[in-house]
Amino acid sequence: MHVLRSGYENIKRNWCLFTIAALLQYIYLMWRTEKELNLAKAFGINSCIADIFVLENGVSFLGIFSIPLILVLIYRCEKYSLNYNQAMRYKSHFEIWKIQTGRLVIYLLWFSVSLLLFAVLAGRLYHLPLINWSETNSRCFIETGNISQVSFAVVLLLSIFFMMLKFIILGLAVLLIKWLKLREIFGYIITAVLAASEYILENKLGFYSLFSMDYNKAVYIELLFMTLLVGISISGILYGAGILYAKRKEFINEESCH
User: Which of 43, 87, 155, 167 has its Cα between 20 and 30 A from that of 116?
Assistant: First the structure.
């Protein structure tokens, strides 16, 4: 009974932490949105809510603020998940890995949906249309030289997917770091390198520009599908590496018992 109560308290605390983090994101988003809208207005560019989705997916939002915050939360939520008392509740290390990754996906989905809902709210506060990428004075046309007939619903779904893709890739990498018993600093070093490389590469072929719903992917569909395939493959490799390591631990434990 005590174990169940403790588990419930952990889940409740984790949900509270992710909700507080999402609210912090909204405050940061409002500041960034106002800054971007003023800049666009100065150049005669009309903005829309879909533009805020693109802003949220970029390194200046996710890489600098959101993902470092999420890493802190993941480390906090999974702090004791691999200690002896917690591990004894499960049948195997493989089961622990599955539960950890499942919990990670649920938390990150909640976080991603919250961010995009906040983007819609911010856009409505500034009286922005849902999408205007079919117009020649839109950000999409300025960035690509082409208009796009993509619907707002498609942009919304792809924005959620790409945001989740980035979160899951880095989240799985952080869990693997924890399983390998490496210091937490390695997770932060990885995110810092990814963010820095984005600026060095001038937002071309960097982690955040590659796995984001942006204007080019709305215009060039083949680029969209190629990116999705690469991102899903990386996620699968990281998840598979976790499974192999968990099963290896089972094998080592069995050998030590004989």
Answer: 43
Residue-wise pLDDT for 20-56, tens only, equals 777 787 888 888 889 999 999 899 999 999 999 998 8
Q: Assign residue 255 a region: left if phi > 0, alpha if psi is -120 to 50, beta otherwise? A: alpha
183, 219, 196, 220: which is closest to 71 by C-alpha? 183
Structure tokens at 84: 């002896």
pLDDT at 198: 67
Spell out the residues 6+ positions from residue 231 whose beta carbon is closer than 8 angstroms to its own. Answer: 162, 165, 169, 210, 211
User: Has residue 95 got a pLDDT over 50?
Assistant: yes
User: What number of residues does the chain have?
Assistant: 258
Letter for the amino acid at 13? R
- CA angle 1/9/65 to nearest 5° reads 155
Indicate the pTM of the whole model: 0.80
Cα–Cα distances (Å) from 207 to 27, 129, 191, 198, in that order, read 25, 29, 10, 7
For residues 244-257, average pLDDT: 61
Measured in degrees and rounded to the nearest 5, phi and psi for residue 95 equal -65, -40
Of the candidates 172, 203, 209, which has an alpha carbon nearest to the alpha carbon of residue 190?
Answer: 172
Q: Which tokens hold the place of 111? A: 């976080």
| Burial tier of 186 (Cβ tally within 10 Å: 0-12, 13-18, 19+) | middle
Domain extent, residue 248, equals 2-257
Q: Quote the number of domains for the chain.
A: 1
pLDDT at position 38 is 92
Tokens (6 digits) for 255: 């050998």
pLDDT for 120 equals: 92
